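agent: user wants the full assembly modeled, not chains individually. Plan: 1) parse entity lines 2) check alphabet per entity 3) run joint structure prediction 4) return tokens. Steps 1-2 passed, two entities, 693 residues total. Proceeding.
--- entities ---
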Amino acid sequence: MNNRVLAVLLAAALPCVGSSAAFAQDKTIKIGVLTDNSGLYSDLGGAGSTLAAQMAIEDAGLAAKGWKIDLISADHQNKPDIATNIARQWADVEKVDIFMDVLNSGVALAVNNVVKEKNSIMINTGAATSDLTNAQCSPNTVHWVYDTYMLANSTGQALVKAGGDTWFFLTADYAFGAALERDTTAVVTKAGGKVIGGVKHPLNTADFSSFLLQAQASKAKIIGMANAGGDTTNTIKQASEFGIVAGGQKLAGLLLFITDVHSLGLKVAQGLNFTETFYWDLNDGTRAFSKRFSDRAKNKAEPSMVQAGVYSGLVHYFKALEAMGGNPHDGAKVVAKMKEMPTDDPLFGKGTIREDGRKIHPAYLFEVKKPEESKGPWDYYKLVGTTPGDQAFRPLSESACPLVKK
Amino acid sequence: MQALYAQLLVGLINGSFYALLSLGLAVIFGMLNIINFAHGAVYMMGAFVAYFLLNYLGIGYWPALIIAPIVVGIFGMFLERTMLQWLSGLDHLYGLLLTFGMALIIQGVFQNYFGSSGLPYSIPDELKGGMNLGFMFLPIYRGWVVVFSLIVCLLTWYLIERTRLGAYLRAATENPALVRAFGVNVPRMITLTYGLGVGLAALAGVLSAPINQVRPLMGADLIIVVFAVVVIGGMGSIMGSIITGFTLGVVEGLTKYFYPEASNTVVFVLMVLVLLVKPSGLTGRAA
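--- prediction returned ---
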């Protein structure tokens, strides 16, 4: 009789022992790269982001320590509804632990909600909107590479200081453009400049000549392009055709990527000023990584800052999991651990993650080289200024994020 | 007032692209009864062929204006021979779906090899710079686009409406069996016509390469507007599509000045209005 009771007790206790042992030893990770694999942003994220994730997994060497890491990727087609569906499926069925890239501001804000609801993790390296760490901040999200506030702050301030005190905006007519224009206007006015006009153009406009004529007629010293991708490259190309830069006005690219400069060619893009947080040719660390990256990339492309962010973000994520000794599959808990630890990798240098989820690192103001200054393909930027991390992003004192204790 | 003149001229420039593209569509629809959704893709191919010619063979803009439409036109004829011809006599929907699918495949292939952000192609040296018209700075290249496409449009119209060859074509559309009875090779004529329509699109592609980035999706962004132009002008009407193309370019230009947010919808608002009042389009005859 006693033996039977003992057996029942043992049987009841065994699963507990088993599960706690399993918790300590759960060394499985599933990474999902959710990006634009086929549309207009696929060059700056897309397959390159998946490659960067693959490289982070290989470099971490966790497989040798008994970890099992899976990597999947999907195309969100720049549509928030499609992205949300994939995110739910990944969280519920595929049991994805962490969402990487998630470029496009509209998509990012939508996925942000799903990730929070499912207690998953998003390290966003591609979206611009600063709302991800402001009003819409989440304990499950880290915004890694850049945001609209930082772009406005760095590029806007530098140009006003250099004498560009009157501005005219060409703004993409959706959430991202409006945010970028709003943030830049604030910076320009604060620095003593004036915004004397602007025009909102529809997304994916092929011909900018009407808008450029209006900008030309405004006589503003700076024409601020609060748009992205094909809209920006078309604006720049057509501005040179209409003699805007030759006429003494200056173009300010508020969001430009190295892939845009590559596709424009230096003849058209030379002299442009804009801000990025990563460039392949910054130092030995970035050069070494980029060499390995471009050897494996399609068309031998150098990494964009979005793709570099995927690598850097995962490196830090792996460090946090290693420090925890296993994967608890609890997004908020892991992100909290990531915020505790300082970040350090060869791509973005030393940094931190703030309580609002904002990754802090320096911002670099670049100028595009003249064709005769460039030594070859992808040798495009001159560094003209650096904003230290603690001044580059929105100060916590101005934050509307509920996670920030005041 | 000066700004207004400038916008009118800029609208005319855009109108010339609309006219060239919708002209090709109208020719194909009028003669073959095919709603050619692959038109945007072949427009894009025209620009890409110009890029290849320059960067791989060192052949510049001027020869490309002739070579690219021929190369892409031959590609179009290949498509017509191998696929489209089997759809003659079937409902329009089949042709529409087939050409739409082809467009997606062509765009996908280009995107896979050349990425999404595009390739640079610069304005030929002879057409660089601009002139000051008093009310605006007109880039010489833009002026060239208007003049050249106007000439091409009128030549095409003349070819189809005023020559013996055009008469055969129109007759073959009306009654292919009868025309064949007169000893005319109707299938070959149809293939050549499809090639002509596709070549016109490729020509527009070459013209636009120095203005826009050469991108795989450049045609997809444009094709919907061009379809609206064709519908407003009257499906299949040659002169209708030319005039509507230029007019809508101007209307769009004015919208960009007065209310820019609406500039990519104004064409569709007009389309709805025209369809309500005159369902066969401005110059189309009732079916």
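agent: reporting back. Chain B has one domain: 21-222. Residues 50 and 64 of chain B are 5 Å apart (CA to CA).
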